[in-house]
């Protein structure tokens, strides 16, 4: 994720500090409820950390369109816009 | 400093603290509170984070309906705080006895006083002992609620195991809102499954104070297939609302008739846990209004509320919601303590229910703040499809268990 991300607040540009730059984009923090971030969780649900942004974006878009069959992911993907999906995918791709 | 100028321009108070300093105090170590503590610490290790929780062992409610039917042991629901403590979070096994929101201090029963810059109250729910005539703490030892996992869960399991074949199990369900909206129907399903296999002359009756419930079509479809002889649902409009109980007689009285149970599971009305009242964050409904961007209380500044205790718009009172809210709250606290404006969040909820140990169904939703309320994003979310193949139900049952393993590993592992 870009460290130069900018926010517009009340007409002023402000640069978030170091702590906020690693902050997940909207929606991304919820994913780890099901998708494991540690090494030790026993689950059939795949990990997202370190996967390619292109791969994650394509999967989310395919869930959203219904092209890729799913149980819950189609219902969840429909709640996110293309830019939101791209931001989440880039953030997960950048995590180690 | 640009950030400080921005915060001022946005109408926020100037940050009193240098970036990265400050003290976050969390009261309540369940899915919500423990997640806030860990997320704040991971995002900004320079913050001092403390977690106060009376019980050194956390007993998780999700999946505990499997314990009642004998498929799972209570120990699989239990987690300690060692890993949380090891991640540089101060953990105190104590009870908060006073919150001074003006001085920003919390007093504990240990005698200690803890100061905070941001307080997080994550109290879960407590039973409203005035909510159902006849149902008090003594009654709960005879008619268990089992709505807080632990000894109550095991009591209900022992009662079912000891019941004669042919005995009637009655589950009483309150009006909304309450913890885990589909939970009573999952419990009834799994009890029916147990009865069908082990006590086939018995049945379970749900006496409901509502006419509609979470995942209703899916539950009822499955009940017709799996438990036509073993489960009956009595809706509010058919006289389902329990108006009083007599524990000595194992009697539940509705507006229309009396039921004598062999085993009575009374899920009583609830409200935000005791800490909410202590901190002054609950309103006249018994629940806690919050700002959906920061989860800061609408009633008390510098105090945030997360999890089941909140009035969270469309989000249900689930462990998944609590965990998702906690991460949003933690990110907002880190920003606020750095003098930055909090980011507009988006949250997900996913809830699985088991209709049988190998038959799972789910509801999912995506939420965002709209006009100060967490609202469900239109066109997204919803429940599992009706009439799905059994393999899909089996897959959702496996996802349910995977979800439990993942979330508990994230929060306590």
Describe this structure in words.
The complex is a heterodimer of chains A (96) and B (413). With 96 residues, chain A is mainly α. Chain A has helices spanning 18-21, 28-31, 53-65, 73-77, 82-94, and strands spanning 7-9, 12-14. Chain A has a domain at 52-96: Cytochrome c-like domain (Cytochrome Bc1 Complex, Chain D, domain 2). Chain A has five helices and two strands. Chain A has a two-stranded antiparallel sheet with strand order 1-2. In chain A, helix 3 (53-65) packs antiparallel against helix 5 (82-94). By secondary structure, chain B is α/β, with parallel strands linked by helices. In chain B, the strands form eight sheets. Chain B has a five-stranded parallel beta sheet. Chain B has a four-stranded parallel beta sheet with strand order 13-12-11-17, with helices on one face. Chain B is globular and about 70 Å long. Classes of the chains: A mainly alpha (96), B alpha/beta (413).
Helix count of chain B equals: 10
Helices and strands of chain A: which structural class? mainly alpha
Q: Give the overall form of chain A.
A: globular
For the record, what is the CATH homologous superfamily label of the domain at 52-96 in chain A? Cytochrome c-like domain
Question: Which radius of gyration of chain A do the C-alpha atoms yield?
Answer: 15 Å
Succession of helices and strands of chain A: EEHHHHH
Give the tags.
heterodimer; A: 96 residues; mainly alpha; Cytochrome Bc1 Complex, Chain D, domain 2; two-stranded antiparallel sheet; 5 helices; globular; B: 413 residues; alpha/beta; five-stranded parallel beta sheet; four-stranded parallel beta sheet; 10 helices; 29% helix; 26% strand; disordered N terminus
What's the SSE blueprint?
The complex is a heterodimer of chains A (96) and B (413).
Chain A: E1 7-9, E2 12-14, H1 18-21, H2 28-31, H3 53-65, H4 73-77, H5 82-94
Antiparallel strand pairs in A: 1-2
Chain B: H1 2-9, E1 23-27, H2 31-43, E2 48-52, E3 58-59, H3 64-68, E4 78-79, H4 82-86, E5 90-92, E6 96-100, E7 105-108, E8 113-115, E9 118-121, E10 125-127, H5 151-162, E11 168-173, H6 183-198, E12 203-208, H7 216-226, E13 231-234, E14 242-246, E15 251-254, E16 258-260, E17 263-266, E18 270-272, H8 274-279, E19 288-289, E20 303-305, E21 310-311, H9 319-337, E22 347-356, E23 359-370, E24 373-376, E25 382-383, H10 390-412
Parallel strand pairs in B: 1-2, 1-9, 2-5, 9-20, 11-12, 11-17, 12-13, 19-21
Antiparallel strand pairs in B: 3-4, 6-7, 7-8, 10-18, 14-15, 15-16, 22-23, 23-24, 23-25
Helix pairs in contact in B: 2-9, 2-10
